[in-house]
Amino acid sequence: MADYDIPSRPSLFSRTLRDCRNLYVSSGEMCEREYPHLLDRKDGKFVALMDDLHRALVLKIYLSICEADKKWSKQERFLAEVLCHHLWGQWLSGEKLNETMKQASSESIKLTWYSMVRPFDRIPPLRDRVGQLDTIVARLCNIIARADGVMREPEAAIVRNIQLELDSHLKNRGLDESKGEKYEDDRSGSLAVEELSRQADDGIYVTPTTNTAANTATKERNFDKRPTTPAEKVALAKPAEPELTVEEALAELDKLIGLGPIKHEVRSLTNFLKLQQKRTAAGLPETDISLHMVFTGNPGTGKTTVARIIGKIYRALGVLDKGHLIETDRSGLVAEYAGQTGPKTNKKIDESLGGILFIDEAYSLVAARSEDPYGHEAVQALLKRAEDERGRLVVILAGYTDEMKDLLESNPGLSSRFNRKLHFEDYTPLELVKIFGLFCTKNHYNLTTEARLRVIQWLTYHHNLRDRHFGNAREARNLFEQAIRNMANRLSTLTEINEQQLQMLEASDIDYGKLPDTVFVPLDDESCRIHITCDKCQHEKDVPAKFLGQKVVCPKCKQQFVVEWGTLVPGERDAPAP
Within a 10 A sphere around the Cβ of 281, how many other Cβ atoms? Predict the structure, then answer.
């Protein structure tokens, strides 16, 4: 028997099932709320589709593992009862449970693993949630495979196969491939939604209902005819998301790691707009300014996140009606044939009215050192609409610093209308490890002291070797998601496991790509020291790395605090190049 007993296992199973539903449903809600241009409609149907996908995923995981050893133990049946209650709100047992699981098994065989996680691969805004999905799948696999207390080889083989299947579809493109990564055309998300809806209409995501003992009829899948699902009822009944106040939006900005100069600039702009409103209320003339902006900096430095928060601030101030963010790049504005670029650009602008149009890699709108009539047409259409709709539209151009400078200098209209520039610096090594820590906190992971040290060493090494294509926060996310996969593979080899092990990342999990051995100085090496700062008085001190994750007392203010992270002291901070 494992370290925790049977009653606690279903409790953890039930909690993880809820986490899975919350991930899928909240992802659907986010797409409907913040990315309506990816959907044909906003009526809860996409949320319901995501709920169906989560149902299919958890069923297939359960059935694949339980059928591995050709047995259905008492403990596995207990988990099946919990699963049925989660999926259909009914506690089943006996013959009802047998019939339901039998039908579910026949339906599950028709489903590919990719069909159930496709949105997280094909819809760009959901890719940031792959780490959460990996976490949930790994925990479900381990709970089910160890329902009897130990994981046997047939079950372990299925768990490894599930992990390999999902890795092949969801694993990030890797460090080398992420260099020069471009924002993908919205078409990939739109096409994915269309394909998901078609598959739903064709009955691919059918799950059994259990209203009566003999009821194995399937639900009608046409979205315009089928009964409203519980997820749809919740989505349709849910009141509109409350508008944030200005201070709440600024507080959201302040919670972001790093970005000190950006936070100052955004707060200064907010204060200016507040002052203008007060002058208007007093009958004084307004100062006419352009709210269009240019964001410069390397990938992964928070440009899109800040743009979204600015939209919320403008909405709270009444500057914009909606404050939503529409993301695109050249492929979303420039067409392939003559006469199509103008309408295409205007359509994207129409989607953005009342909010912000965020154009990533904006310098690519006009091809360098070559004739590009279509790109120039898009720029001219953009300039005209930006001026005509200045009370209803804010445009943010984003991209690498030098290229954006060349773009603005090449067109006087752009430089005059986009005169507010915000530069996003690369994150420091300390900020990167804090971002990694944030991913861990959000997904309920802890780290051993050795694991914390390896995270610091890994991110510091890559930061020191960075070029203009360095992924910044994306590097931290890639490392975190790979750590989850490594952990899942490690746990699949253990016969017994407890809940603490499901949440603890170890040093061996922090492994992504080939690095020189000299990067990972052992924890017990006397030269392995970190630089830390007291949370209260900001007193700085170099301490042995063994204090990572431990409580310490500041020698100056006597405040006790936990050493979550730190930076490598000189000599170790500058990791050697290969």
Answer: 8
